Amino acid sequence: MVYDGLKRNKRFFWILLVVSFCLFTVCKKTDRLSERDFPEIKEQGELRVLTLSGSMTYFMYKGEPKGYEYELLRDFADSHQLKLQIKLAENETKLTQMLLNGEGDVIACNIPITNEGKENLLYCGSKSINRQVLIQCAHRGNTLLRDVTDLIGKEIFVIHDSKYYHRLNHLNNELGGGIHIRTIDKDTISVEDLIEMVSKGEITYTVSDWDMAKLNKTYFHNLNINLTISHPQPSSWAVKQSTPALAEAIDTWFEETQNTPRYKGIIKRYFEMSKMPGDEPAPLMSPTQISPYDVFFKKQASIIHWDWRLLASIAFQESKFYTDRVSWAGATGLMGLMPRTAEIFGLSSDSLIYPESSIRTAVLLIKRLNRSFSSVQDENERIKFILAAYNAGSGHIYDAQALAKTHGKNPAAWSDNVEEYLKLKSLPEYYNDPVCKQGYFRAAETVNYVQAVLERWEYYKMKVMK
């Protein structure tokens, strides 16, 4: 009995020793990660990035990470041969908390520079000056508002309890009243939705930050964003005060890079290049021909048992039949394919400028997407899912299906079901849902894409023989 007790005690001692060693090792590793500065980051080869999911910061598009802040950070990391580990926070407040808790090395998101923040943070990188601006439609014949006093008597729509709502209230008090502030209480409307509604003439005015307004102007050319309604607010990236070498490295990189073609190219992609697709019917070459590439469409469409005119409709939506077209996101060639897609199917990205290669690769992708959405049994319905995934990447469509199912909708139906939840993925309460794996998504482009391709297909079917 005594011997057995000693044996048990000895076994317990060794278990306790092993557990203690493991905890010690984990704690040491955590301390090493949380206390590291740029020399340690370079030695370990990985930069942990804290950011937000959004159109300005980080999002997935056609299966590839995108975002203005992300691309800048990736360029910095590439210049130092560092891998990126992206960690998304739910909001701006949690970004700072996560940084101070040692969960990341840098906040790659323009956060306001404040005296309170300077107590714990080192602000670094590009110091931008943001401000709130009025979004108004600039159609010919419209009278544009050019001074804040012009807001008196006007209806301005903003999200309830947002920073734009509070700024308008302050401004209204400064002016002695008269601004008609209309609040949106729906949790299914985002700031970018309101901007689109102004462009379409559904509402008169709204307000957003200038950088978001400038990005959205590449989607809606009829917007005027010139009227500032707030004081300027400086903002930048941030690191912990205990990592001055990292702050210095980021500052040096910005100083050396901001006038290079590479940096200017990032600016151009997000704030200058048009993201408006062509939605007019393509002019027919003849009653029997849509494009010079019909022979390739017919050959490849037969492989997946599709109408070749549907492939032609996709091609026109992607490139207007220009074989050398490159989109803001890097989608290339006749069928608007990403270079990474070409690599997946064993092709070089250079091959995408050749029509037959582009169409053949697109059909391989469609074939894969057809398998991915095989649970959508109705073939016509499945085509909508395939088109949506072709444009957005399948991950966002899976997210929308999961959201639809969670909320009691049909994950195998597009209109009024998955389509609606894809639209809601621009709102934090939806893209932060645990069932969503791909984060923020701007769905208007994809929803319009599906509709435009299908409508043009119907047009081709009426005008061109099969």
Characterization of the model:
- The protein has 466 residues and is of the alpha/beta class.
- The chain has 18 helices and 12 strands.
- Mean pLDDT is 90; it is low at 18-33.
- The radius of gyration is 26 Å and the shape is globular.
- β2 and β3 (64-66) form a beta hairpin.
- The termini are far apart.
- The chain folds into 3 domains: 36-123 and 237-271, Periplasmic binding protein-like II (D-Maltodextrin-Binding Protein, domain 2); 132-231, D-Maltodextrin-Binding Protein, domain 2; 294-463, Lysozyme (Orthogonal Bundle).
Topology:
Blueprint: H1 2-35, H2 38-44, E1 46-52, E2 59-61, E3 64-66, H3 68-79, E4 83-89, H4 92-100, E5 106-112, E6 121-130, E7 132-137, E8 155-159, H5 163-174, E9 180-184, H6 191-199, E10 205-209, H7 210-217, E11 223-224, E12 233-240, H8 244-257, H9 261-271, H10 294-304, H11 308-319, H12 339-344, H13 355-372, H14 379-392, H15 394-406, H16 414-423, H17 428-431, H18 444-463
Parallel strand pairs: 1-4, 1-5, 8-9, 8-10
Antiparallel strand pairs: 2-3, 5-12, 6-12, 7-10, 7-11
Helix pairs in contact: 10-11, 10-13, 11-18, 13-14, 14-15, 14-18, 15-16
